[in-house]
Amino acid sequence: MPRGALLSHDGTLLHSTTGAARGNGYVAEASTDELTRADEAFSGNRLLSTFSLQERSLLEPFGELLDLETGDLVLRRGEHVEASLFPVGPTMISMIVELSGGRSAEVASIGREGAVGGIVSCGHVPAYSRAEVLVPGPAFRVPMEALETAKNQSGFIENLFCRFSDYLLAQVMQSVVCNAYHSIAERASRWLLHAQDRAGDRIQLTQEAFAGLLGVQRTTINAVIGELSSEGLIAIGRGRIQVTDRAGLKRRSCECYQRLQDHFDAVIGTTGGGAGG
Question: What's residue 23's pLDDT?
Answer without folding.
Answer: 38
